[in-house]
Structures are given as structure tokens and as C-alpha cells.
Amino acid sequence: MPYLDGELASPEQREVELHLRECEPCRCHLVAERARVAALRARGEPPLPPRVRDRLATALDLEDATAARLPFGHGPFILPLLSTLVALVALVLFIRAVSCA
Ligand SMILES: [Zn+2]
After folding, report:
1. How does pLDDT run across 24-69, given as a tens digit for each residue?
2. CA 15 to centroid of ligand 1, rounded, Å
3. Once rounded to an integer, what is the mean pLDDT over residues 86-90?
4. One domain for residues 33 and 52
5. Contact of 11 with 44, CB cutoff 8 Å
6. Are residues 26 and 58 located together in one domain of the fold?
7. From the CA of 68, how far away is ligand 1's center (Å)?
């Protein structure tokens, strides 16, 4: 992203350009990112300032790390478990609401 924003020092800029020449996935990524930024600009929404984007990315990483540390975070069953819990709570609330009416 700093490359895309033209924020790299020229040696780094050159390094990225050399890498892009060799690396198809990164080239595709760059094209996609450019298109995304251009689309945002076309809609009149300026892309997030790099500092804000970095903080956002850090916050999201932190959230991912926290989620991975949950006791059920490693299994695929955390979501079904959660939705079962939510369904149970909803059921209890529903029964209460009905019995009060
Ligand atoms: Zn690459």
C-alpha cells in the first residue's frame, strides 16, 4: 500500500517494482488495489489516510488474534455453538413474553 500511495523511498520503490516484475500474484493485487482506490475516488470518497488504515489493520489483526485465543477458537464449531446459544436465549425470551401476555 505505501508503494501504491507513492510513500516509499526510492530504493524501496525500486525493490517493489523489481518484485512486481517477477511476481504475478502481487501484480494482480496491485491492479486490484489500484482499481479499488480509483473506484473509491470516482465515488467521491477519498481512500483512508495510510495512518488510519494501518491502525485499522492493527486493530483487526488484534481481534483475529483474540478470536484465535478463545477456547473454541480453533474448532469449526464455535459458530454453530454461538447460534444455538442465541437461539436458546431467543426461545427463553419468547416463552417469557408469551407467558406474561
Ligand atoms: Zn509477490
Report:
1. 999 999 999 889 888 888 887 666 788 888 888 888 888 888 777 7
2. 11
3. 86
4. no
5. no
6. no
7. 27
- Rounded distance between C-alpha atoms, residue 44 and residue 66, angstroms: 35
- pLDDT of 61-80, one tens digit each? 888 887 777 665 556 666 77
Q: Look up cell 454453530; give the residue.
A: 80
DSSP-derived 3-state class of residue 101: coil
Q: Verify that 100 and 51 share a domain, yes or no.
A: yes
- The 3-class SS string of 42-98 reads HCCCCCCCHHHHHHHHHHHHHHHHHHHHCCCCCCCCHHHHHHHHHHHHHHHHHHHHH
Q: Structurally, how many domains does the chain consist of?
A: 2
